[in-house]
Each structure stands twice: as C-alpha cells, then as structure tokens.
Amino acid sequence: MISSELETRELITLGGDGVLLRATYHKTTGKARNDATALHKRMGVAFLNPLSTPRALIGDSAVYWASSFAARGYPSFRLDLPGLGDTFGEVPNELITFINDGGYAAIVSSKIKELTDSFGLKGAVIYGHCAGGTTAVYAAAECKECKGLILTAPYFNAANLLTPKLSPQMVDWARRSKVGELLRATYTRMRELRKKPGKGTLPGNAHFGLLSHWKKVLSNGLPILILKSAEPAALGSSKLRSSNFDYLGYIASFAVRSNQITVKVIEGTDHSFANRAGRAAVRQYTEAWLSEYFPQESADAPLLQHQSLQASGKLVS
C-alpha cells in the first residue's frame, strides 16, 4: 500500500489482488489516534462512487461527511472504483447495467478486506449513494468484513429501463439534477401505474437480482441506515405518488429483527444531499446511527458544531 500524507488526510493506493485502487483516508484525531493499538478496536466507514461521480461526491459532500465521522472516532475511506475518479481502468459502456448486475461487488469486497487488514480495523460500514448503494448491497452480501450499510437514495428497480441508451454522464445528470429527478419520478410512476401490480406483488421493473442480495444481507443480520430525500411530486399528482410500490416495506419483511433497518426522510434537499440541509441531516442521522450500532471512543479534539437543522431544513423521521 502506497501513501502520501497530508495533515488529517492521506492518499492511499490499495494494491491487493493486482487491482490498484486510489482512495483517501480520513484519520481520527486526539484519543481516537491512528496507531495499531487504537485502530484494531474501531469500525471504519468506506464510501463508494455513485456512477461516474468521483469519490468526493457532488459539492465535496463525502469529504465533509468522512471528516466528520473520523472526528467522531470512525476512520473513513473514500474509494474510487476502477475507471472512476483517480483509479485507472475502463468504464463499461453500459455503466449502470454493469453496476445493477453487481459488476463492482467482487472488487469492493476485496478492498474492504484489504482496508480492514491493513489498518487493523474490526470491520467496516459501507456507505453507498444511489448506484453506489447498489454496489454496496452486492458487496455486503459476500463480504464478512462488512458490518453494516449506510445507503442514501437507494433504488430497487431495474434503473436501466429508463435510459439504457444514454451515456453514463447523461444518466448521472438524470440522477442528480432536480429536472432529471422529476423526469425519472414521473416516468417510473407512470410505468408502475400502468402495470397495476397486486398488493404485495413485485412490479415488472423490479430488479430481482438486487432484491435477492438484499435478502441475503438482511438474513446475515447487518444493520442498515437508509436516508431518502422527499420525493418530488410527479406532475403534481398525488394519485401517481401513491401508486409507487413499497419497496422499503417489502425488504423490511425480510429483516431478522425489528430494528435492523432504520429509515429517515430528509426534506429541504435533493437527490445529492449536497446542500446545507442535506449535508447536516446526513451527518446527524449517520453519526447517531453509528453511535448506536457501533459505539467507540470519540476524539478528544473539539468537534465541528452541527449546523442548525431548524435553519437549514426540516427533518422527518
């Protein structure tokens, strides 16, 4: 593993299994020091790329969250998967299809093990946004070092049905812009309304392979935090909004305990969670969840004060 140190962050290269993967390591501080005697008791957090977005995520939001979690005593790592960001490799022509089929899962599983072994961690929680959440679920189903999942704006349907011919950049735009989000929501709701699935019946555009991996992750007992932005109304129609299949309710039926899945809805933000309301809320909810499920010693350095949630946006549990 090659590293280049800079203050509380370190550029690292994970080279196991012949795959060179670039990442940024956010160090803990103070009592939550980074030597082996301290780290072996700690849980790390690993961030994955959503589609072609680099590891910093939109508006450097992942930098903010990783720094915040590290200050709380959770060493954090932002990974660039092959072909994305600073990691060399070829991007598949149909990137979203590749992701939806679990194309990055084996590499992520291998790199999570490499991280835990190299830094002596007791395990890692994988953070995945949107398509990164899909990769996280596939990887978690096979990776024993993964101890939990944090998923922002996950999807459960075969997302490539909407834009199978578009470039990864256009698909990325459709997933992170407000206009694209509205178009996707409207299209999906119209499809589901036409299909009119029976109660408890999966709609035709469900991603059955992904859902089967959800079942495996849940059967393994991993705790999962799901954060969602408030969904945009499709052409102002509450009827269309109510026609959506309840995927969260469906996957919750496979949980092995009542508190295994935590779901929070954040208002005042968009799909990226990159504005002030989204960044503050993701930080607050995630830190509370980490403290509940993976308690560990906090740093003794002064923590950044949470932004006023009343001023930055309303939270809905």
Which features does this protein show?
317 residues, alpha/beta, Rossmann fold, ten-stranded mixed beta sheet, globular, disordered C terminus
Topology:
Elements: E1 2-6, E2 9-14, E3 21-26, H1 36-39, E4 43-47, H2 61-71, E5 76-79, H3 95-100, H4 105-119, E6 123-129, H5 131-140, E7 146-152, H6 168-176, H7 178-195, H8 208-219, E8 224-229, H9 238-242, H10 247-252, E9 261-266, H11 276-293, H12 309-312, E10 315-316
How would you characterize the overall build of this protein?
With 317 residues, this protein is an alpha/beta fold. The chain has a single domain, classed as Rossmann fold (3-Layer(aba) Sandwich), CATH 3.40.50. The protein contains 12 helices and 10 strands. The protein has helices at residues 36-39, 61-71, 95-100, 105-119, 131-140, 168-176, 178-195, 208-219, 238-242, 247-252, 276-293, 309-312; strands spanning 2-6, 9-14, 21-26, 43-47, 76-79, 123-129, 146-152, 224-229, 261-266, 315-316. It has a 10-stranded mixed β-sheet with strand order 1-2-3-5-4-6-7-8-9-10, sandwiched between helices. Helix 2 (61-71) packs parallel to helix 11 (276-293) and helix 4 (105-119) crosses helix 5. The relative contact order is 0.14. The model is unreliable at 160-165, 186-199, 233-243 and 298-317 (pLDDT under 50).
